[in-house]
Structure to design on (632 residues):
């Protein structure tokens, strides 16, 4: 390898990890479809006030249960005469927030617990791992129900509950990759140069452990959206009149016989958004971890 | 192997302990006075004081916890605020409905999921594979309760083929025998000579089974496919093929058998999750099981009932996981021979 400098090989600028990932990503049709869907929903969420044709909360009782493509309502109206299209667009805002915030909570605590537990090892690690095993043994849907019952039903509490209930999964993923890295030469080198524990854990090791965590987080956003819709459906998440997709399905139940669109559309929105994150997450996993292909 | 099983058994006790503690904290730390919340606005001070005494809420937290633990250990889950019945009794009455639904959903998911998984592994990278795996991805991305509502809308409301909910035609004067309605239907067919009960039980089961089974089906299909693909690349498969053994036999006798290990784990895990997923499905289909009962109890703020239901389902979940883990270590020679 040393002689490469003397050899007459034209120097190629090495791609950054990000460029490399993007290069493979572009060739993965599933991942690109997923990314497209996610981008669409994120744009919808950010620009909701600009792109939604009406106020999502404004009731027009005389126009209630207007079918799709009638009287200027592309997706019709619901039982209180609210514009379905606008409610779906604002719903993207709520669901994207839920996904990002609850995964953020899981990531924050999961990373701290996973990194410290793997780095220090010993009894501390054993106790933490036992606690994590216990939490993983608890079915997470029930765990979120318990936490929401503790905190009281609201959208914020649903996000917190979903975030907390997933912490053990992230802690496990992070711990496994830190264990694999912590004895590497570059870590020992940093240590020899006098780096402190905090620096070693979060600035030296952590950046090299991010790939599996990123995959988990991407898939986690989709799962969080599904879970929060379920909680809202049970009356434990968003409260009326919030245009949350799960809640929209719950309150449309009685109209199943005469207004199919108010039942079907919010579900399709959830399906599409979650599918986007699943496609993108699966694609990322294939690219970042070739071992897990198939 | 024995060591592995003992280790898992040792984990059981702290896990159940953790579950009970969490569920206890649910009432103890709930904002406001739980007794007032449970009794509602119209309750007078005397009633509230009485309920507080009944639930032991007037004692210090540690003492409450000790009392609660000692009661749960004796399987005394207390009385439901809404009905005044013993909660253990309420659970026992509803559990057969939940188990029956979960059982058929799991059978449906396992058979169809494995078939699809094997098929798409054999026809890797063909349109069959793409369609199946695309379908599986849609399956895991779907909200179960929404799928349930759409099924009701299509098959019950539009096509008028299947009932919208419940377990049995309410016009039949039906007294359950085992509380597993399909089984009851068969018994009554033999005893009374009419298959109408069995037929009605099956009709009521169909849609909830599909709704509840879809997610596990998709996950089983994906696991079976990737496990099969891995096994099909092994040398002994090549050897079997080059020895001239028929392809069908290679796939079903040689490959599938070895590909089953991860699938068994997934099936077990999914069965445990089904019980908690049943809250949503049972609610949609008015299925009179534990899930719907927990949902109703949440709405009625019947905290002792919610606590009891959650403790029960979690315990069941933990036990199933344990059973799967033990089964796995028995089946897997790598662990068995350690």
């Amino acid at each position: 390898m040393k002689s490469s400098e003397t050899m007459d090989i034209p120097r190629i600028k090495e791609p950054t990890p990000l460029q490399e990932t993007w290069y493979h990503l572009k060739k993965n049709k599933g991942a690109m479809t997923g990314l497209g869907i996610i981008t669409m929903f994120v744009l919808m969420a950010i620009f909701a006030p600009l792109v939604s044709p009406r106020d999502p909360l404004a009731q027009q009782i005389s126009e209630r249960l207007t079918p799709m493509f009638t009287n200027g309502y592309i997706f019709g109206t619901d039982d209180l005469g609210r514009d379905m299209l606008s409610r779906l667009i604002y719903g993207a805002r709520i669901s994207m927030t839920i996904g990002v915030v609850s995964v953020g909570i899981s990531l924050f605590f999961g990373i701290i617990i996973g990194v410290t537990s793997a780095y220090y090892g010993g009894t501390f690690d054993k106790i933490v791992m036992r606690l994590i095993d216990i939490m993983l043994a608890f079915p997470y849907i029930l765990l979120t129900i318990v936490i929401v019952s503790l905190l009281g039903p609201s959208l914020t509490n649903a996000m917190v509950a979903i975030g907390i209930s997933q912490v053990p999964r992230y802690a496990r993923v992070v711990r496994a990759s830190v264990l694999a890295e912590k004895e590497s030469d570059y870590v020992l080198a940093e240590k020899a140069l006098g780096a402190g524990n905090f620096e070693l854990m979060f600035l030296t090791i952590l950046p090299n452990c991010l790939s599996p965590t990123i995959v988990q987080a991407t898939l986690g956003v989709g799962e969080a959206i599904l879970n929060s819709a379920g909680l809202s459906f049970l009356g434990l998440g968003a409260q009326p009149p919030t245009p949350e997709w799960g809640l929209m399905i719950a309150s449309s139940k009685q109209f199943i016989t005469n207004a199919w669109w108010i039942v079907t559309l919010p579900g399709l929105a959830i399906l599409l958004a979650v599918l986007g994150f699943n496609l993108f997450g699966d694609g990322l996993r294939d690219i970042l971890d070739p071992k897990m292909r198939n | 192997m024995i060591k592995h099983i003992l280790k898992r058994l040792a984990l059981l006790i702290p896990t159940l302990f953790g579950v009970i503690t969490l569920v206890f904290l649910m009432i103890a730390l709930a904002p406001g006075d739980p007794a007032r919340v449970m009794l509602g606005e119209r309750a007078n001070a005397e009633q509230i004081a009485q309920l507080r005494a009944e639930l032991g809420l007037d004692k210090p937290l540690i003492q409450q916890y000790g009392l609660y633990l000692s009661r749960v250990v004796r399987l005394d889950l207390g009385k439901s605020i809404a009905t005044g019945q013993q909660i253990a009794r309420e659970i026992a009455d509803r559990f057969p409905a939940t188990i029956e639904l979960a059982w058929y959903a799991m059978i449906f998911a396992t058979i169809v999921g494995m078939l699809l998984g094997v098929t798409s592994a054999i026809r890797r990278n063909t349109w069959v594979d793409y369609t199946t795996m695309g379908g599986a991805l849609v399956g895991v991305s779907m909200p179960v309760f929404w799928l349930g509502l759409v099924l009701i809308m299509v098959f019950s409301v539009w096509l008028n083929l299947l009932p919208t909910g419940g377990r049995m035609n309410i016009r039949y004067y039906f007294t359950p025998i085992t509380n597993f309605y399909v089984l009851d239907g068969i018994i009554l067919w033999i005893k009374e000579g009419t298959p109408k009960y069995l037929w009605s039980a099956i009709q009521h089961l169909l849609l909830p089974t599909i709704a509840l089974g879809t997610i596990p089906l998709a996950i089983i299909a994906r696991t079976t496919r990737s496990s099969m693909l891995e096994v099909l690349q092994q040398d002994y498969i090549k050897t079997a093929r080059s020895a001239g053994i028929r392809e069908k036999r290679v796939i079903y006798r040689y490959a599938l058998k070895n590909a089953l290990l991860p699938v068994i784990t997934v099936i077990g895990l999914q069965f445990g999750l089904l019980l908690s997923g049943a809250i949503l499905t049972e609610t949609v289909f008015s299925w009179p099981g534990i899930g719907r009962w927990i949902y109703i109890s949440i709405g009625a703020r019947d905290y002792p009932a919610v606590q009891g239901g959650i403790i029960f389902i979690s315990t069941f979940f933990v036990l199933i996981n344990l059973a799967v883990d033990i089964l796995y270590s028995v089946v897997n020679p790598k662990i068995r021979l350690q």
User: Anything to note?
Assistant: The longest helix of chain A spans residues 84-120. Residues 26 and 255 of chain A are 43 Å apart (CA to CA). The two ends of chain A are 34 Å apart (CA to CA). Chain A has a mean pLDDT of 85.
